[in-house]
Specification:
single chain; alpha+beta; Beta-clip-like; four-stranded antiparallel beta sheet; four-stranded mixed beta sheet; 12% strand; globular; binds S-adenosylmethionine; SET domain-containing protein; SET_dom
Length: 403
């Protein structure tokens, strides 16, 4: 990917207060006209996170902040490429590709009412360079080892969805604009919601107006979002002062997941959901008999250092013991969560410390390489350097006082 530092960025200030309504004012009115209830929040441009929602007055815990009825949600349309394809639609197209193809085709109509909504989304120039899936091979190769497999899976999913979209368009004799598809697929990837209208299949996805302005916060920091048969309700999780951003928790996501899926990370001390994956250190050190023993008990892979508590996860405790202890001692630990013959956590820590040295060297090397890279997207490089620094800090802290 070429350097896009000159691409248009959204200004990091409050929204224009001119007499002319902004695109966000126009969309807010569009929502209100369609029965969306909005209480004491408005969109605002927030540094480093695009647009989000901030409070305009005090809000009390449990107050209703928003309600979005089903009607203004955007749903997939099985006839988007012609009526003949409705039969194969649910068999061949994933919920994500259904929604992406539908919104893309809808927005091709000059008279579509959804242009007012689309105007509030990040543009392709703003969105696509943030997503690792569309980074250059060089940048992708600088993702942590834990993200190489998820990246490959995402690539395969995208290729499959693109090929489905191509075949629906071909059958209908319509030309697929692949760049446009890529953009709408990415919009759906970052701002769709599950909603199941009566009769729909599980996994049904929709775009949900106004609540899609909410940015992500880690576990314990998000408003209460509930799906009811009538629509989406959003209630305050705590009291809010005016001018505070309200966040939604997209899931208890570690930074790896946030990075690969959305292209951002949270500061580690503020993200209790974060973990530093250690599979690339543990798996190559295992004999094939250890690997199959771990597989048999469901403990193969998914090893992590947890920065929030500075501890190794239980799976790591089990896996390292599988390499250090006798079968008897190891089975006792799995069954009881403690060691048969004296606490072995010191030995586990020593073993892990030895391996972490390699990981530290890799992190230092990657940061140096990234900082010397020319011609790559500067924001993407910054996000990657940030993630490697978090890894480095977690290793340092574990070396000093981890358990
Ligand atoms: C549902 S949208 C939220 C609205 C979005 N910020 C916008 O400008 O339209 C999700 C996207 O917002 C951004 N985002 C969400 N939470 C964030 C956070 N905590 N920090 C940085 N970016 C965030 C990511 O680009 C993500 O893909």
């Amino acid at each position: 990917m070429t350097n896009t530092s000159s691409r248009k960025r959204r200004r990091t200030s409050t929204l224009p207060q001119d007499s002319e309504p902004s695109k966000h004012d126009i969309f807010t009115q569009w929502c209100l006209d369609r029965g969306v209830q909005i209480q004491n929040v408005k969109p605002a441009i927030l540094p480093g996170r695009g647009v989000g929602l901030i409070t305009t007055a005090k809000i009390k815990q449990d107050d209703r902040i928003m309600f979005v009825p089903e009607k203004p949600m955007f749903k997939p349309d099985a006839t988007v490429f012609g009526k003949t394809q409705t039969k194969t639609w649910t068999q061949k197209a994933s919920p994500q590709v259904q929604l992406a193809m539908s919104i893309m085709q809808e927005c091709r109509k000059p008279e579509s009412q959804y242009h007012k909504w689309k105007a509030t989304w990040p543009t392709p120039e703003e969105l696509l360079p943030t997503l690792p899936l569309f980074w250059s091979k060089t940048l992708q190769s600088h993702l942590p080892p834990s993200l190489q497999q998820p990246l490959e899976r995402q690539r395969l999913d995208y290729e499959k969805d693109l090929s489905t979209a191509r075949s629906f368009a071909n059958e209908a004799g319509v030309e697929l604009d692949e760049e446009d598809f890529k953009y709408h697929w990415s919009i759906v990837n970052s701002r769709s919601f599950h909603f199941k209208p009566p009769g729909a299949r599980p996994g049904f996805m929709v775009l949900c107006p106004f609540v899609d302005y909410m940015n992500h916060g880690p576990s314990g920091t998000g408003v209460k979002v509930s799906q009811t048969p009538k629509g989406y309700e959003v209630d305050a999780d705590r009291d809010y002062e005016p001018g505070t951003e309200i966040l939604a928790t997209y899931g208890a996501h570690p930074n790896d997941k946030l990075l690969i899926h959305y292209g951002f990370t949270l500061p580690t001390p503020l993200n209790p959901d974060d973990d530093i994956r250690l599979d690339s250190l543990l798996l190559p050190a295992m004999s094939s008999s250890t690997t199959s023993a771990l597989q048999d008990v469901g403990f193969l892979g998914g090893y992590a250092l947890l920065p929030a508590t500075n501890e190794l996860c239980f799976k790591t405790q089990v896996a390292v013991r599988a390499m250090l202890l006798t079968a008897n001692e190891w089975e006792y630990f799995i069954a009881n969560g403690e060691d048969l013959s004296g606490d072995q956590s010191g030995r586990v820590r020593e073993w892990v410390l030895g391996r972490l040295e390699e990981f530290r060297e890799l992190a230092v090397e990657k940061i140096e390489e990234l900082e010397g890279l020319e011609g790559e997207d500067k924001d993407a490089v910054k996000v990657l350097v940030g993630r490697w620094r978090q890894i480095l800090e977690a290793i340092d802290r574990y070396e000093r006082e981890g358990r």
